Amino acid sequence: MKSGPQMYGEHLERLRKAITMEKTDRPPIVLNAAAFCCKYGGGKLADLVSRVEYGHACIIKGMLRLGDGEVDATELNNEYPPVLGSIFLSRIRVPGRDLPDDEIWQIDEQGLMTEEDYDTIIRHGWGSFLADYYRSRLDGVEREYEHLAQHADKLAQMYTDAGIVTLAPIMALPPFGAISGGRGIPRFMRDLHRIPDKVQAVFDVIQHETVETMRQQIRDSRPLAVFIGGAREAGDFLTYKMFDRFAWPYFKELVEAAVAEGAFAYLHLDMCWDRFLDYFKELPKGKCIFSPDGTTDIFKAGQVLKGHMCFMGDVPASMLTLGTPDEVYAYSLRLI
Questions:
Q1: What is the pairing mode between strands 106-108 and 165-166?
Q2: pTM summary value
Q3: Are 123 and 129 in contact (CB under 8 A)?
Q4: Which of 9, 67, 68, 174 is 20 to 30 A from 136 via CA?
Q5: pLDDT given for residue 148 in this prediction
Q6: For the packed helices 196-221 and 116-124, what is the interaxial angle rounded to 10 degrees?
């Protein structure tokens, strides 16, 4: 049986080849399945809240149960539900506190950000605004980040020792998601039409700080890839004109900056991006992972982007929940 470091090296090489579209012995397996793997490894979802290292030990155990040495990577190595809502400037209900021990965490999006907050961000910056927002409106979530930071190095080492690569330990998100969550979708969509210049000014402030922070994080830790996500920018929320102004320039800049610093870009794409697939041909070739959920037509994306970037996914959650093993197998084979 191979050691963890031996498996880690093999998995990392397989991932690099897949991302750069070289031939591999098999497609890499990358899981974003913390909740499932925690329970499959003998834990409860509440363990990810109250016993962070134990909860992640259960995740790793669950991954190894799926096939020792078969899982190449995890999307993240620091899943900690109490901080997830803050990504969207929202509170979150977590198992073991607000919910039963084995119920999945739930973002509680209430639109806590006011229109006056736009001016505060423009005057004082994004970081300063976030610090006050976390303290005054998100029940002191900064303490949760501090708690997670105490475990960060240990968690990263646990996955490495098990031979499991962390695909994207750094997250850099365009401004659209955070502000749409903070304002709430109805108010935010009105803002885009009523005060577009102010929204863009806020986006520019956020983007500048996000890019500089991401660049420094890449230099400090040299990750394989950076998690760059998008959701509400796509789907049926925006016209092409709005997409060209408020979404794509920020997304593209983050990708190009990450690649310039030597990292790959992991494009975590929720909702349907079918209308915007051609845009992705503008991104650096052989440097990105196109990872949609079940709403984007991955086969259409394959036709548009074949030879330009690699693909990750996509077995729909509905199929994993309601389909038979044979259906899942046949669909996975079709993807490969």
A1: unpaired
A2: 0.95
A3: no
A4: 174
A5: 97
A6: 50
How long is the chain?
A: 336
How high is the pLDDT of residue 4? 84
> Residue 267's beta-bridge partner residues?
228, 290
Look up tokens 């970037």; give the residue: 309
Q: Tokens for 140?
A: 């002191």
Ranges in the chain, pLDDT < 50: none
pLDDT (0 to 100) of residue 328:
95
Position 237 scores a pLDDT of: 82
Question: Is residue 253 within 8 Å of residue 266, measured between CB atoms?
Answer: no
- The β-bridge relationship of strands 106-108 and 91-93 is antiparallel
The neighbouring-strand residues paired with 31 are 74
What does the alpha-carbon distance between residue 89 and residue 141 come to, in Å, rounded to a whole number? 10
- For residue 281 the two structure tokens come to 């041909």
Q: What sign does the CA torsion over 38, 43, 45, 47 have?
A: negative
Residue 164 to residues 2, 71, 77, 170, 226, Cα–Cα distance (Å): 13, 7, 10, 16, 17
Q: Of 178, 164, 7, give the one whose Cα is nearest residue 84.
A: 178
Show the CA angle centred on residue 59, arms to residues 28 and 68, nearest 5°: 50
Task: Give the per-residue SS3 of the chain.
Answer: CCCHHHHHHHHHHHHHHHHCCCCCCCCCCEECCHHHHHHHCCCCCCHHHHCHHHHHHHHHHHHHHCCCCCCCEECCCCCCHHHHHHHHCCEEECECCCECCCCCCEEECCCCCCCHHHHHHHHHCHHHHHHHHHHHHCCCHHHHHHHHHHHHHHHHHHHHHCCCEECCCEECCCHHHHHHHHHCHHHHHHHHHHCHHHHHHHHHHHHHHHHHHHHHHHHHHCCCEEEEEECCCCCCCCCHHHHHHHHHHHHHHHHHHHHHCCCEEEEEECCCCHHHHHHHHHCCCCCEEEEECCCCCHHHHHHHHCCCCEECCCCCHHHHHHCCHHHHHHHHHHHC
